[in-house]
């Protein structure tokens, strides 16, 4: 289930943000016993690279990610930390 959920999250981000790179890591095992984990929501860390982020503040970028995942927030996802980059920033970061 966990791998399936992670794959769905990656696919949503790729499609909705036309992302050129998405990496989602399931960190749910690090939060066993946490209230959100007991309710079935996972803890994830994501790197998303998209031209949709160009000219936007970090908060605006996060909002785009949350909007892209609105169906999964609260059910599949309890917590999400993210790094949002433009393609240029991604290239510079190596």
Please report the first level of CATH classification, the CATH class.
Alpha Beta
Strand content: 15-25%
Poorly predicted runs of 5 or more residues? none
Number of strands: 3
Distance between the termini: 32 Å
Q: Counting H and I runs of at least 4 residues, what is the number of helices? A: 4
The helix/strand series, from N terminus to C terminus, equals: HEHEHEH
The percent of residues in helical segments reads: 40-55%
Give the biggest sheet.
3 strands, mixed
> What name is given to the CATH topology?
GMP Synthetase, Chain A, domain 3
**Rg, Å, rounded:** 13 Å
- How do the strands line up in the largest sheet? 1-2-3
* CATH homologous superfamily (4th level) name: BolA-like
Principal-axes shape call: globular
Please describe what this structure looks like.
This protein is an alpha+beta fold and 94 residues long. It has one domain: BolA-like (GMP Synthetase, Chain A, domain 3, 2-Layer Sandwich), CATH 3.30.300. It is built from 4 helices and 3 strands, in the order H-E-H-E-H-E-H. A 3-stranded mixed β-sheet has the order 1-2-3. The longest helix has 16 residues, at 2-17. The relative contact order is 0.22.
């Amino acid at each position: 289930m966990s791998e399936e959920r992670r794959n769905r999250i990656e696919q949503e981000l790729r499609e909705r943000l036309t992302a050129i790179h998405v990496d989602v890591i399931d960190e749910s095992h690090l939060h066993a016993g946490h209230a959100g984990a007991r309710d079935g929501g996972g803890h994830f860390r994501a790197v998303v690279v998209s031209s949709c982020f160009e000219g936007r503040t970090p908060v605006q970028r996060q909002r785009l990610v949350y909007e892209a995942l609105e169906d999964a927030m609260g059910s599949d996802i309890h917590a999400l930390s993210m790094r949002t980059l433009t393609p240029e920033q991604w290239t510079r970061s190596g």
